[in-house]
Task: structure prediction
Amino acid sequence: MQSDMKRLMQTLKKAMACKLALMGLTILTISTGCSTPKVISADQTLERMPAGQSLTAPVDGWFMTDALYQRYRRAVADRILEVETKGTGTNAPASK
Result:
């Protein structure tokens, strides 16, 4: 009986910790999230093109392969992290 009670208390403690973490994450997401939607003009949309299919561009621009696009996105993400860490004063290393 006592071991069941001990196990129940441990489960309740873990559940409370999970609830607090989830509540904190929810509050953080709400407080730091975008308050207004961003509108992207039609000439700035991204369309996925499978290999072997022809592309007729509706506007002038550049075609990027998946590998180049991933490198570009990683560079943008790294730069955002760099700017954010400078703004908060922390020295978090940028991921590669």
Notes: Residues 57-96 form one domain. The chain has a mean pLDDT of 77.
